[in-house]
Automatic annotation (TrEMBL), chain A:
CDD domains the UniProt entry points to: ATP-synt_F1_alpha_C, ATP-synt_F1_alpha_N, F1-ATPase_alpha_CD
EC primary class: translocase
Domain ATPase F1/V1/A1 complex alpha/beta subunit nucleotide-binding: 154-381
Cross-referenced HAMAP family: ATP_synth_alpha_bact
Site (Required for activity): S379
One GO location term (cellular component): proton-transporting ATP synthase complex
Catalysed reactions listed for this entry: ATP + H2O + 4 H(+)(in) = ADP + phosphate + 5 H(+)(out)
Organism in which the protein naturally occurs: Slackia isoflavoniconvertens
Keywords of this entry: ATP synthesis, ATP-binding, Cell membrane, CF(1), Hydrogen ion transport, Ion transport, Membrane, Nucleotide-binding, Translocase, Transport
Function of the molecule: Produces ATP from ADP in the presence of a proton gradient across the membrane. The alpha chain is a regulatory subunit.
Protein name: ATP synthase subunit alpha
EC numbers for this chain: 7.1.2.2
PANTHER family reported in the protein's UniProt record: ATP SYNTHASE SUBUNIT ALPHA, MITOCHONDRIAL
UniProtKB/TrEMBL annotation, chain B:
UniProt organism field: Slackia isoflavoniconvertens
Location(s), subcellular: Cell membrane; Membrane
Protein name: ATP synthase subunit delta
Keyword Ribosomal protein set for record: no
The protein's role, per its UniProt record: F(1)F(0) ATP synthase produces ATP from ADP in the presence of a proton or sodium gradient. F-type ATPases consist of two structural domains, F(1) containing the extramembraneous catalytic core and F(0) containing the membrane proton channel, linked together by a central stalk and a peripheral stalk. During catalysis, ATP synthesis in the catalytic domain of F(1) is coupled via a rotary mechanism of the central stalk subunits to proton translocation. This protein is part of the stalk that links CF(0) to CF(1). It either transmits conformational changes from CF(0) to CF(1) or is implicated in proton conduction.
Similarity annotation: Belongs to the ATPase delta chain family.
Amino acid sequence: MTEITAKSIDEALRKQLESLDTSVDAREVGTVVQVGDGIARVDGLKGAMAGELLEFIGEGGKTVYGLAQNLEEEEVGAVLLGDVTAIRENDQVRTTGKIMEVPSGKGLLGRVVNPLGMPIDGKGPIKADGYRPVEFKAPGVISRKPVHEPMQTGIIAVDSMIPIGRGQRELIIGDRQTGKTAIAIDAIINQKDNDMICIYVAVGQKASTVAGIMETFEKYGVMDKTIIVAATAADSAPLQYIAPMAGAAMGEYFVYNGEDGKPAGPENLGRHVLITYDDLTKQAVAYRQMSLTLRRPPGREAYPGDIFYLHSRLLERAVKMNEEYGLGSMTALPIIETQAGDVSAYIPTNVISITDGQIYLQTDLFYQGQRPAVDVGISVSRVGGSAQTKAVKSVSGTLRLDLAAYRELKAFTQFGSDLDKSTQDQLNRGARMTELLKQGRYSTLSFEEEAVAVYAGGKGFLDDVPVSDVVRFRNELIEFLRASHADVLKKIHDDAKFTPESEAALNAAIDAFKAQFVA
Amino acid sequence: MPNNRLLAKEEVATYSGMLLDAALEQGGAERVLEVREQLDFVLRTYRGNADLREALGNPAYSPEQRHTLAVNVFDGIDPLAVSVIAVMAERGDLDKLSSTVNAYRNAAEEKLGVAVVDVTTVVALDDHLREVITEKLSADLGKKVVLREHIDASILGGIIMSTNGKRIDASVASELEHARIVLKEENDGGEC
């Protein structure tokens, strides 16, 4: 054991203080002219940079940080990030010469932090590996690679028909109480056994909801690879505004650095990150509040003119890096809440146009018991099949067609006319396929299990199973395969596709299961 | 109320120019710097008091009432400064007070060829130190320097100098703060 002496402490301190620059600190200073609504107007600071971190010296020397936002001829408009009440008119403001940074690194995994990176889970201080800027320019064309690896959510409806790739930006959109957060949480829970690092950014949510989500992650064993960035409804608008960017900065650490914390490269691979922004509607509202109090001109729905740029630069940070930069990826799942299904409102249309597809959730479907309430007709993934395993891809084509035919025919059956056998068969198949997509919360499936479920439906194994028993059939079939035919699942997993042998084995296994299935 | 930016600038220039000319006429450089000091005080008072701002800018009061209010509130302040502020209050121009004071500071320093530097120390400066600081600053700024001395024990030692929005901090308190940040970052890892 190393002995701790005064000399060793002195040496350690001297070593740490080697980088101390004792040169005189020259900075610009200004004075607070007006403060209120979380905004301060500062006289002076003619050399302040846009987005620069400002130091407000309040009563008794208390320092509160702020962000320079409006650079005007005589004044600077800044948003305050800390204790607003500590700042008064005539207080001194200093420039810092740097933009806002948040702590990042492995130490944040398993923690709940505020958008400034400070722990709020009561588990003690965080040992960060370093700091990263909140505003960071997204990588350019040269360092990127097309999205090609699947990011499994474990949800059949999503993975089979709206596949998400690593590095993709897939919007989850729908009214309140349609299960948007549930999809994002299930997607995170499904990463339990792989190399994905997850970040959940909660914007403007209730603190109790965030606590509940943390508990869920802990219960399903994914909290140790997850960071929760929480700007709750009680936090100020500036904190809600920077929360998604702070989450992205924490995620970028893993994408741009290898396991050893050194920059990623061909020899030192970057990691894969899944980041959920829940939700960007509230971030937009917070930014609108900030902009209006900063007296920026309001535009459509009173949002400022740069609201599109706010979201586009955030989502552009989702990336799939190429070999030279270590192949890391950041997949973004932004969430947008619509009002009464209106996707043509300002923020939804903006984010729809920025993202690489959307998962659209419908209130009607939700109340009909179709959960997750994904409307597969209008949900799309623009990256599509290139981010899908061959096994799922080969069976999902049939699923899409069956469902499309079902939707079309179902409209006709409303007239109550007599139906021929083939139409009746298509309707039966469609009803079962729709039923097959129902999935409970926290019951994610691996890709081979999803493939098997869709395969069973597509090949007609479900045709004689009553619709009400389809979900039970699927669940019991998967249990049966796990217990008695693990080799079949393993083969599909290893090959990542259906081979004639695995298909034959699977058919036999499903037949064996059907023989014992009691409807 | 004129919202034209150029018009507003002209008004600010008129107020500050008028004040400077009057101060120069009354007592030269010393008087100019005295008025500068008084204006700083008025600006701090005006900014720090929401009720005062509200009252002096309230259009419900007649211009004469606002004039009288300004004269009464700033009773005891330099009459020259008060007279201009009262006119500004009367005309509803007090939102330009900050710009006017800034313009006066700049114009005064330019006219007199001096730079006013605020110097904060823990103990009062002796003559020798004052001379050394003045000489050094004059050489750096390229003009004659007028020191405004302040005492503040919280800086622990060293000196803080500020002029025209620039601040040079060579205090012991800030050195210690730097050391604290370096030690913290040494443990946190710095930029990554």
